[in-house]
Protein 1
Amino acid sequence: MTAPVRVLFVCLGNICRSPTAHGVFRQRVADAGLADRVDIESCGTGGFHVGEAPDARATQAALGRGYDLSDLRARQLRPDDLLAFDYVLTMDHQNQSVVARMADGQPNATEPRLFLSYARGRREEEVPDPYYGGRDGFGYVLDLVEDACDGLLDDIREHRL
């Protein structure tokens, strides 16, 4: 058996966008019967919330669509993550820039990619940070994440499994 495909979702604090993507993609992978073939994690470029559960609004919005984020805890991106993961997916250009700088000079580092590059039905490039907005922002994030998760799973099936 080959090593599992490793996917890392990255945002700023790892309490809204990346754990939402983590939870949605984990469910998509499980529903596809691939849980033993795909490892999924999430992290933040900042260390503001290390050890904390996802934002309550993100957790509630996700639960409303059948995704459980309750076991997830925030962690900060580490340089070795760029060697350990096959996909390093950032939620926006700012975090992509931070990750790219961390990868610079590391031979064999995985090049970060914008997560929404896998979205099929959207033109957005970035998943907006809903932290300072209202509850509607978390539903919109879920819309974007679900679309990109479907495209990502298709890509993994086509190119990695």
Protein 2
Amino acid sequence: MIVIKPQVGVGAMLFNTNQELLLILRKKNPDTGCWSLPGGKVELYETIEEATIREIKEEIGVDIHLNELICVTNHIQVEQQVHFVCPTFFATVLSDTPIIKEPDKIADLQWFSLDQLPSALTYTTTNALKEWQNKKQSKD
């Protein structure tokens, strides 16, 4: 009998100086073939902040500073036996240019204008974008 337990998956919204959002094209489930924010799973005894910083460095080779928590998404796909709780941060890139460091997990990495995002976005990415826009509008 397979027991499915919720997992914690973290991610970060990273923008360049042109206000373009960095997205990665996923090679693995969940959401194979979809564009996603960079991130990954929280390890035992690791905070969500530590995990986000570590995962971004492992996946795309950059150091980041976490600015604020944007949202927490409940990513549940019963048919795929997936249940992730996903905190997503707004972060600033501190060093280097993002590159694919985990080619077994990432097919592509691109910067996108917010008005020209790809159509195949993960649920977590879509939710984070919606919450980001809501936060920006409430600050204006």
Protein 3
Amino acid sequence: MKKGELLYEGKGKKLYKTDDENLLIAEFKDDLTAFNAQKRGSEAGKGALNNKISTQIFRLLKEHGIQTHLVDTISETEQVIKKVDIIPLEVVVRNIATGSLTKRLGIVEGTILPLTLVEFYYKNDDLNDPLVNDEHCIVMNLVKSEKDLQILRHLGREINSILFKFFEEKGLKLVDFKVEFGVDKDGNIILADEISPDSCRFWDAKTNEKLDKDRFRQGIGEVKVAYEEVLRRILS
């Protein structure tokens, strides 16, 4: 497959056209960003780790019936993916209180939530990706209908159910995660983007050591070591 011109560059990936109009090549970057890119850095090898981790997770989800945009992994840092129209919502799924949830609502960090909380955030850097409710999504035409929001919630919870159990068996707490979805050429809503320590919070089940991008956000350090540990456990 021929790699064509650069179509889009985001915080964590570059997307390239291919000689198939329905397929793209996604290249994972070593860049690290936090707080809507106000904090920036880089970690050599991070892109390759995220590629491997996301590939394994997407394959696991496919085995459980979740449709994704992943077609194949073709190099250390590259995937062939289906071209989709991205729904401009970040679907955040929470099991344990931390981050913005504790700041907004005062829930003590580490509190196990009594239910799987699903939140929507409008993907807009200029507005700092604000939290939105169902009515906002409809008024702003972020989705076609309320049914789409129901599908996104269902998929978020279904993915959480699969991954929570999987990571629990690997000695990791899946604290929360962000996923994105897109509409494929047949009109199906499918999982897109990535699932990695850039987009998830993983805590060690025994020590609560953070093994995700919070190590960069909070200046803890050893980001690559943490990502390598997540990959090791996934493959174990």
Protein 4
Amino acid sequence: MTDHSEILMNRTTLAKPLGGRLSRLASGHVIAPPLVFAVMLGAVWLLNPNYLSPFGISIVAATAAPILLLALGQATVLNVGSIDLSNAATSLLGTILLAMILPGYGFWGILAILALVTVIGAIVAYAQVPSFALTLGTLGVLQTAALVTSDSQTIYLGANRELVSTLYTTNVGFVPLSFWLAVAVALVFWAALQFTRAGQSMTAMGKNETAAILSGVPVRGLRIAAFAVSGFLGGVAGLAILAQAGSASASGIGSALLLPGIAAALVGGASISGGQTNPLNVIFGALTVAFVPMAIQALGVGAQSQSLVYGLFIILVVALTTTRSRGIVIK
């Protein structure tokens, strides 16, 4: 009995510092995205306070809205241990198609496009092919489809424009409605991960897919669902883009959101290895990414060098916010 008691005491003693270290890692991972955003906000304020005027805040929020929606879709897929390189292209195609059919079909056209991009997302995940290779190929297909569909022209909204423009023209606290819509999506996503069986199963799948399979988790169905959500949110991002621009084209607003969307998810704390995401922190990730062009412009960096500075910033922030500890594999 004495030996067993000593063993239990030793295990408890060892578990306490280990639990403390894991708790500190978890808390650090939770607070890192808001801290990074605070640093970015402070840097922008020091460089040019005018960017934080009501007008500047409105512009940043409008820019962040589609990035946040794409990032939430990306975070959903990352959480199950995959990656979606095609969701920005899905959004672009959906934006073009919506601009074409909105004048004739109105609200029903919006529902049809959202259904279409959701199905595209689900189909992408249906084939049992590594997600990186599959979505990279799908990216090319969808970009070509966007070019062909639009005939490389800009499509301007005409009738029924108010059905989407309201998302941009209606402000709540200097912030466009499109951004608040994205925040509401983040809240719903957070609640789903915390309180639903499907959400918890997705996280478990991302942490250890083999264990999830042995536990009876419907892995394939959840992966298809995650990609379907990514496609759907890409469609909603298209609404935000169309509301802001009033037009759609294969080279206009929304044509270069793949990197910002992935970056916002990662800066917001989503793990590239799967099984870890906090939709509320993705909000801070999207805002941080949206402020990057302003910071670059305030520094006086030329447009030809902005991509370089942007890329270096993303690498630095992701490197600083990625959890590293013994036993955790950085993929």
